[in-house]
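SEQUENCE AND FOLD
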Amino acid sequence: MTDQTSRSPFNAALNLAPQPETREVATADSWVRHYAAIALAAYAQQRAEFRTLPANPVPGSRPELGYLGLLAVSATAAAVTLLHTEDYAPGLIWDLTPEAGALNGEWEEWLADVLVRRGINPGHIDPDLDPADFANAVRGPA
């Protein structure tokens, strides 16, 4: 298993699923891969940041936590929209929100499944996931 303590989830996500460089090479699948990887990295980084919060943090002292949440949700929504028809995507986006009850990592499970189907091992992005659990994903860290 790769030592992931020195690797940022964002660096790993961009390494495994880079943003398409030109319009000519951009495909829906390459964007789905990119947005799903970025979303998973944002969720992983947000969890790591929450672990370091003191018991009673000063309100507004960690604005990057809101940014990470916004990035995670928007990248998840982009991946959903690129993958599903306009009739199905709004319902799935709703199903993946906390308001709909997705409070136990359902969005991360969905993102992990999307990445595995595209050959990316989510365990190489999210340090809380074991890469061995995703043996059917073929891409690994560079």
Remarks:
- The first helix runs from residue 9 to 16.
- The two ends are 13 Å apart (CA to CA).
